[in-house]
Amino acid sequence: MEKNMAGWDRALRVILAIIFLFLAFSNGGLWWILGLVGIVFLVTSAVGFCPLYKVVGFKTSGET
């Protein structure tokens, strides 16, 4: 599994994940879906690999 995410992409995902998780925990209801997206963002940024990027052939890492 090769990394396909650049540092800025990973940092942006962490920031969005924190916001999404905060909204999910503070609002409740159907906001838990946004919390799941936040968890996925945290995991993909920690690993540096996004499966969706692989499927569509997209990279932000700059490597060829």
Question: Your description of this structure?
Answer:
It is a single chain. The chain is mostly helical and 64 residues long. The chain has one domain (7-56). 67% of the residues lie in helices and 0% in strands. Helix 1 (7-27) runs antiparallel to helix 2 (32-47). The radius of gyration is 13 Å and the shape is elongated. 19% of the residues are buried. The model has no long low-confidence stretch (mean pLDDT 93).
Distance between the termini: 14 Å
Apparent shape: elongated
- Can you give the helix content as a percent range? 55-70%
What's the number of helices? 3
| Integer-rounded radius of gyration | 13 Å
**Percent strand:** under 5%
The structural domain count equals 1
What's the β-strand tally? 0
Order of helices and strands: HHH
Could you tell me the mean pLDDT?
Answer: 93
Structural class: mainly alpha
Brief descriptors of the model:
64 residues, 0% strand, 67% helix, mainly alpha
Short description:
The chain has 64 residues and is an all-alpha fold.
Record the SSE blueprint.
Blueprint (H helix, E strand, L loop, with lengths): L6 H21 L4 H16 L3 H6 L8
